[in-house]
Write a structure and sequence with these properties.
It comes from Micromonospora marina. InterPro entries: Transp_IS110-like_N (IPR002525), Transpos_IS110 (IPR047650), Transposase_20 (IPR003346). It is a single chain. This protein is an alpha/beta fold and 396 residues long. The chain contains 16 helices and eight strands. The chain folds into three domains: 120 residues, Ribonuclease H-like superfamily/Ribonuclease H (Nucleotidyltransferase, domain 5), CATH 3.30.420.10; 122 residues, no CATH class; 118 residues, no CATH class. The chain is globular and about 85 Å long.
Amino acid sequence: MAKLWIGVDIGKTHHHVAAVDGDGRLVYSRRVANDETALLTVMAEVSTHGRPVCWAVDVTTGLSALLLTLLWRRQVQVRYVSGTVAFHMAAAFAGENKTDARDAVVIAQTIRMRPDIPILDPSDRLLAELTVLTGYRADLVGQRVATLFRLQELLTGISPALERAVDLNRKAPMMVLACWQTPAAIRHAGVDRITALLRRGHVKNAVQVAEAMVGAARQQTVTLPGQRAAAVVVGQMATEILAIEQRIAAVDDLIAEQLDQHPLAPIIGSLPGMGPLLTAELLVHTAGMTEYDSPAKLAAHAGLAPVSRDSGTVAGNHRPPRRYHRRLRHILWMAAFAAARECPTSRAYYERKRAEGKNHRQAILALARRRVDVLWALIRDRKTFTRPTPAIRVAA
C-alpha cells in the first residue's frame, strides 16, 4: 500500500488538507471545516489513497486543538512544521503563489523530505491548563501596561507634580486616583481621609503615600486645559487597573494550584530565580521538558548556544543565533538575572564571567546556559536544588 504524507494548513474556520505520496505527487487536496464530523470524513477519505505515515500542522494553538485531539485519539503521528520552516521550504518548489492549498502541499512535502521535523506529543491536562492560564495572564499584563501608560500621560496633563510624587506601579496611588484625580480634589480630601481609604485597602505605608500625594497637590493651584475630562478618564482607568490586578492575582493562584500537581514543578521551582510564574511558563514552552534529549538541545532552542560559521580554513568562528524561541530565552534570562542577585553560587559564576571580560549581558547569558545544565541534571536525577551551606570560619 502506498505511503502518504499529509500536510494541513490550519485556519480559524477551515483547514486545507493535502496529501503526497512517496514520489511527491499530490494525491489529495481539500478544504475542510474546523468541525469534528468534517474532519473525521477527511481522515476516512485520505485513508483510501494509501497508508498515512504521518500528519503535519503549522499551528499548535487552539486553532488546531480539535484536529490534533482527533488524530491523537487514533494514535496518529503528528509533526509540527513552523511558519519559518514552511516559508523557506516553499522556495524549493516552483511558483510564487501563496494559497492555503499550496501551503498545505509545502507542509506535506516538508515532512516527506525532512525526518528531523519535531513530533508533537499529546499535551496532558495540567500543561493544557497551564498554557491557557499563562496566556491569559500575559494578556492581562499587557492590558495593564497599556492602560498605565495612558493614565500616566493623562495624569501629567492634570498635575505633573502629582505624577512624579508617587509610583503608579503601586496599589496605593491607584486607589487614591480612583476616588480623587485633581490637585483640588486631593487637597480637599486631606491626609486623614486618604489614609483611612488606604488602610481599608490594607496598605502598609498609608500615611506616607497620603502625605506625598497631598503635598504634590499643594504645589499646583492652577487648572490645566482639559483637566475635567482627563480626571474622569483617569478615575476610570485607575479603577480598571485595580480590577486587572485582582484578576492577575486570581490567575496566579490558579497557576500555583496547577503547579502543585505537576511532578516537575518542585524540582524546577527549587532552582534559584525560578518563581511559580517562570516555572509554569518553562513547562508550557518546553512541553513539560519532553521536547529535548539533551541540555544542549534545550540551550540551542533558547538561543543560549553560539552558531558555528566555519568555512574552508576558517574554524572556530561563532556568532550569536538569530532563530530561537524568544519567550523561552526570556524565561531563562529572567531566572538567571534573579539568581545572580540572590544566589551566592550564581553570583560567583556571574562575577567570574565579568572578570573574563564579558559584559553584563554576556555574563547573564553564560549563567543562563550553565543553569540549563544544572536544571537538566536535577530533572534527570529527580532531585531538588540544595543551596550550598556557607562555610563557618573558626577564629584562630
